[in-house]
Fold this protein.
Amino acid sequence: MRRDGRLRGISPVLAVPFRANGDLDGDGFRAVVDHVLSSGVTSALLFGLASEFHKLTDAERDLLCGLFLERTVERPGFAAICSVTDHATHVAVQRATCYQDRGADAVNVLPPHFLDPSPRAVIDHLDAVMAAVEVPVIVQYAPVQTGTSLQPDDLGRLAERHANFGIVKVESSPPASMIAALARLGLASFVGQAGLHLPSAVAAGAIGVQPGCSMIPLYQRLWSAVDARDEPALFADYEALLPTIVHWMTHVETIVQAEKTVLQRLGVIESDHCRAPGGQLDAFGLGLVEGILSRLGEDAPS
């Protein structure tokens, strides 16, 4: 299987900003992309759950894809990942092909889950998307959010058939057993869920984490400790971040709101609006924003 060396470490999921009235903020999205690129990460994902992909029109999705890729195409050392979230296999194949043709360096595939498709249908869907493109394919395994269950052996057989498939984003809870099983089959893993289980995921073989995009320096510190094999530093930084992640991760919509609030307070976007239905930050959650901003200020270059 072929693996792109840029697909490792911190790979943020891009937030999609809206104006206070709910309209898409294209200029704000450009600012989000530039904010991520300036951090020095080697990849980023558009249309993840943190991108609120399920709240976008087709026209908005097309516009956002264009804005993302025009800022990243042929950018040295950076891989732009676009996520295919369509339920119908026919549409998913078209979407993946379109992303590739427009310059995406990799595609992420969220397996179909509406109305509980059979395991065979899910594998056939992934098989068709992988066959349709040449760029690397990442499969997003999010059973908590989607209810879809995938078996490591099924994914291993897909990897045997498709040289462009070599990474799974694992968001099972906890993820370590799945990551370890995939590693035995030669498949690498990103861990999701804002890095909630990062140390155990790394111990099981994870090659990176895909958090939101508002706290990149804090995750870079964590991954620097991973690369240095400095376990005490990893656990110290992880334990400092953990209470915030645990509180915000009570619901995906809540952490999406938190990410946008941090981005707004950093001056990256004008509004932290999330399209309804969404999550809300309680007083404690808002207090955690202040703590994150303080830590980000400490990590800012002098």
